[in-house]
Amino acid sequence: MPKYIIERTVPGAGQWTEDEVREISAKSNEVLDDMPEVQWQESYVVDDKLYCVYVAPDQDRVIEHARRGGFPADKVSEVRRIIDPTSSGR
């Protein structure tokens, strides 16, 4: 199934408290309970953005998750390839 990176602009996200992290995570999981074909893998938090990694049948499902949860989805990009240190063949 395709993997997507979602860029979300969320001012102040890098300063969220543990309670705020739990609250936003719980909301996402609540939406995902009704969307078993979509899987949230992880999110990277920087100052004013989140970069979330999702697996879903298509981009529309990712956007639907954002809509239902009230989350921004500024840009949704399908991952075309994953490279890592082992990609060099060494």
UniProtKB/TrEMBL annotation:
Entry protein name: DUF4242 domain-containing protein
Keyword annotations of the record: Plasmid
Domain of life: Bacteria
Organism of derivation: Mycolicibacterium chubuense (strain NBB4)
InterPro entries xrefs: SCO4226, SCO4226-like
